[in-house]
Design brief:
The chain has helices at about 10-25, 40-45, 50-55, 90-110, 120-135, 145-160, 200-210, 210-220, 225-240, 285-310; strands at about 5-10, 25-30, 60, 75, 115, 165-170, 170-175, 180, 185-190, 190, 245-255, 260-270, 275-280. By secondary structure, the protein is an alpha/beta fold. The protein has two domains: about 5-140, Rossmann fold (3-Layer(aba) Sandwich), CATH 3.40.50.720; about 145-305, L-2-Hydroxyisocaproate Dehydrogenase, Chain A, domain 2 (Alpha-Beta Complex), CATH 3.90.110.10. The strands form four sheets. A five-stranded parallel sheet has the order 3-2-1-4-5, sandwiched between helices. The chain has a three-stranded antiparallel sheet with strand order 6-9-10, with helices on one face. A three-stranded antiparallel sheet has the order 11-12-13. Helix 4 (about 90-110) links the parallel strand 4 and strand 5. It binds adenosine-5-diphosphoribose (APR).
Amino acid sequence: MRSKVTVVGAGNVGATTAQRIHQLGYADVVLVDVVEDLPQGKSLDMLESAPVMGSDAKITGSNSYEATADSDVVVITAGIARRPGMSRDDLLLTNMRITSAVTAEVVKYSPNCIIMPVTNPLDAMVQNVFVSSGFPRNRVFGMAGVLDTARFRTFIAEELNVSVEDIQAFVLGGHGDDMVPLTRLTTVGGIPINELMAEEKIDQLVRRTRGGGGEIVELLKAGSAYYAPSAAITQMVEAVLLDKKRILPACAYLEGEYGINGLCVGVPVKLGAGGMEQVMEIKLTSEELAALKSSADSVQELVEVMNKARAEA
Ligand code: APR
């Protein structure tokens, strides 16, 4: 029997993720959105591509959660993008309400699933979904590190004119601006990056990676990145469905690892059938630890804004 994956949010990221997973062929997909007929229309269109793409998997769209029952994995991309005049906190609290409502439905219909949030601000949303779900931490973890490292790997490959496949990059911390790339552990075919590139060049690529989401927004004008984000979350879903035990960066709830307790932060983890099976804890230099701590502090600030809003509600 095929696995079942639900993707909540049929916008750019959600629909592209559903398309990628459906095309892999080993999971049936349910696409959910609040907009009437949107997930139904997109999923029918994808289903009709199946004879050409060679996928026998099913894909359906729905505006309610009955159809999502007993999903193995649920990806949450539902949310709104920041609009002109909207503060960072407004966006945070709006997407908090959306992801909380989505989580309640997901948990009701798929009490044993693994949830992977993608909605931004990522780390805070993972924390919110983790807390609202009541699930153990191995069953709620978010995407971001795979995307950030994919961007970094792209820029390194381009610069060195080598295959993207040979580049292993390592990041810690929050998504985007807060990302902590460990260039010490970034390698090209096993060769440390600093043997192949000047430090200023590495710094320049790190800066471009940190602003990678913004660079796309500026080019697209309306909307944000979705091809690379959907590829990243698909790799994480695949690691779970195929029990690959992949070591990938993800946003996970830490319980003392790296000196951080009770907060969702980006760290390397092992992903397999059990979800986030292990936090990979490595020895960091004091400088790296300080950068990670500062990234965690930014997540903590957002968590406090959410806690205050919940207490006032
Ligand atoms: N339940 C289900 N779907 C919802 C809900 C809800 N409560 N609220 C909003 N949505 C849907 C919208 O109707 C829309 O179709 O979420 C979808 C979001 O799609 P887009 O606006 O196209 O946004 P997208 O580019 O897909 O990004 C989604 O992922 O990478 C992050 O920053 C990004 O937070 C954003 C999210």
